[in-house]
Amino acid sequence: MVRAAVELGNVSVDLTTSKAGFGGERLWFRCPHCDRRIGVLLVHPVDHTLGCRKCLNAEYRARRYRGMVENEVAKGI
Q1: Residue-wise pLDDT tens for the chain (77 aa)?
Q2: Cα distance between residue 66 and residue 77, in whole Å
Q3: Contact indicator for 51, 31 with CB cutoff of 8 Å
Q4: Bridge partners, residue 43, by sequence
Q5: CA-based Rg of the chain, rounded to a whole angstrom?
Q6: Is residue 36 a contact partner of residue 54, using CB atoms and an 8 Å limit?
Q7: Do strands 11-19 and 3-8 pair parallel, antiparallel, or not at all (unpaired)?
């Protein structure tokens, strides 16, 4: 397993690897807040902190609008 760190803005983010199929390796970020192994880091739109989806309480865009179209169709609009 490889360990490294990258500097994003003024935050140091650790990198780690895991074993993948057929003898390969996959790179992961470590969340600066919860230290979870994640594939995508996000930047909070208001306070510009860096973290994972769980720490920043972020939702997928499709989930945010879920029910809006279905409700309009059910009403017959």
Answers
A1: 556 667 767 788 888 999 998 989 999 999 999 999 999 988 888 888 889 999 998 877 666 666 665 555 455 55
A2: 17
A3: yes
A4: 50
A5: 18
A6: yes
A7: antiparallel
